[in-house]
Amino acid sequence: MKGNGEIRIGFYICHCGSNIAGVIDVERVAEYAGTLPGVVVSRDYKYMCSDPGQDLLRQDIAEHRLNRIVVASCSPLLHEQTFRRAAEAGGINPYFVQMVNIREHGTWVHDDAEYMTGKAMDLARAAALRVYAHQPLERKQVPIKPDVLVVGGGIAGIHAALTMADAGKHVYLVEREPTIGGHMAQFDKTFPTLDCAACILTPKMTAVRAHPNITLWTWSEVEKVDGFIGNYTVTVKRKARYVDEDLCVGCMECIEACVYKRGKFDDEFNVGLSKRKPVYIPFPQAVPPVPVIDAGNCLHLSKGKCKDTCVEICGDRKAINFEIEPEYQEIEVGAVVLATGFQPFDATRIPYYGYGKYPNVYTALELERLVNASGPTGGTVRLPDGRTPERVAIVHCVGSRDEHYNRWCSRVCCMYSLKLAHLVKEKTGAEVFNFYIDMRAPGKSMEEFYNRVSTEGVHLVRGRVADVYAEQTDEKKTNGQIGRVVIQAEDTLIGRIRKIPVDMLILSTGLQPQHDSEDIRRMFNISCSAGGFFLERHPKLAPVNTFTDGIFLAGTCQGPKDIPDTVAQAGAAASEALALIDRGVFELEPNTAYVLEEECSGCKSCIPLCPYTAIAFEEEKKKAEINEALCKGCGTCVASCPSGSIRQHLFEDEEIYREIHGLLAYA
Amino acid sequence: MHRKEESGETGVPWRPRIVAFFCNWCTYTAADLAGVSRMKYAPNTRIIRVMCSGRIDPQFVLDAFTEGADGVLIGGCHPGDCHYSEGNYKALRRYHLLRRVLTGMGIDERRFRLEWISASEGDKVKQVINEMVEQLQQLGPLDLPTERMRLDSELEEMRPRRSVIDISEELKEAAHV
What we know:
Chain A has 17 helices and 34 strands. Chain A has 667 residues and is an alpha/beta fold. Classes of the chains: A alpha/beta (667), B alpha/beta (177).
């Protein structure tokens, strides 16, 4: 250490433009900090994180022989690494740096200038006292396993998996449905270009299956996750499909041969608009093209009594096997990309829209299937009674932007509602009314698309729908036809209540987190935003990272977004994962716990506390011993050691006591 | 005579001071989020970052009170959400015991609070701190340092070691503002 063990602190307070200096009198704080014990240099500077700011640190270290640094600026979660690197570049141990958070926890939340200046002094004093006790530490490096896991096989997962596989990484893609493709596979056309979803998606799906670097596990779910960045051990449950993927040739003869002559059970892919058999394939281009047997409805599996015509027709191929048991695979990966997607808002939650009550009220996803040429009606839009609708209403923001349901804007509904308006008009010639709150068309070519649809004669009514009710008609005249529903809304542009009877009502349901996103979140040890979508590390600067290193986010599991943004984010998540894996090693915070052997009484009270079983009892010495490689640095054992013989690097008792004293001592 | 000196000399009315121990992963991040979202709340807390609420030694809390805090707040991840699996449960256990100890020492248990605040709950940081400040304002100053000095003079000989580190000398050396 420089200066014969003398502690020489440099104190820096950042103006952050006017973010900090606009409230706190930074000069006064700097002047005060200069009087604190050990502080030899004290400055205020416009932007400490800028290159000149960091240069200033380096120069001062050289010139004033500084060996401790305190920077009062933003959150350490943002710039601690920056200043540690600057200190290291200046030639001192990077852990001789302490930050004071006076922006996020200071000037951004409090405006009392006088009080905040005093509080900044308190915090400065605490940091100066704390840094006094800092010890030099070495960075710990852990190797990164080269394989990657992608959870979710929608467009986000597919794109991320392909990107990483193309870079030569081995990717496990886990999807819980029998096929990959996700919601995008269910859509008909995509806005704003109106290209068909299947045409752009299915080639990517096939590429996944064909890729030598991708292990595709559909009908599978992640069961358990252990480990940490670079070294995750993941258990994947491969549910019993009852059709052997290796033996099946995808001829689909078993579906044809099933004892059920026609479909009897709700087809999930067509959101219940059609029926399927117990042995089925979600849609013709499914990947893998292997049927799955629904154990609850298959006569052989549920009743044990069936003529097994499917087995018979499969013959020598022997692909159908009722003895298949769920299989558990354990894989080791260095990084994980979560692309678990969304679920549409459940329209039955808002009773006054009449979904589930009137047969001619549909959700947007149902309509996607109806307008789709490979959908249950072969692409013709008709009512349950077979008629073609003459008037159709589309209601935006169903479940979104609503205090009672989801507060957020689901971002895609305005555009897909316009797309559906266009498609319905094109297919049926019906008069279409779109009820919207605000028309949101941000992004490339979106406004143009809105203009296009509005000039096609779609009626755009600015008003939130207040009620939907059956039109009063003379019973005799209905002729068995489904009656119209009346949409009541206040048209806020003309300031009048409008009641518009329509044959068909489409509810543009918003996007919300998957029903089990909470379980996934817990399993991967990440956080959620207020709405339940997964929380990114930083909303602007780290949008695909999470607070758990090595876990990345892609697509709508992080928040509502359209396909272009989902793909862009998936690419970003893939490149972050690649950057991590190609680096080969990851540097851990050196905040592990250690035992002062001479003071350990061997009471063993720390041992059961450790969630990582990092503490062992050394029988010979009768002392506790911490395995540094297993310790994650939570410090629980440190707080509980009755003899005070367990310490924690970076969070030494002495450092924290000094911080407490510094905060509270009146100068 | 810490407190009297301050209010006497500057004429600034007493305002409660809270020492908050926030875990790095949830509550500290939530306080950052409150900042990024520019939520305004009472400025009375001074936050100390620890990796996990399980790191918080009861002695830290006692020390904060002894040094002059009017309230101590611990913030951790929600049950089941701890970054280190279960450190928050350890914190909860200690919290319950410590509350009884504090009550026994004559410190109103409302001065000590444990809250689960996840990384997305910036508004909860605001709400909890505002509530706590209001509560402390009603309870008035705790001012253990003055009390301690009184006791110290009475028990000159039997004076216990006041804390792990004695930095009073350093602080005296520090110049005054």
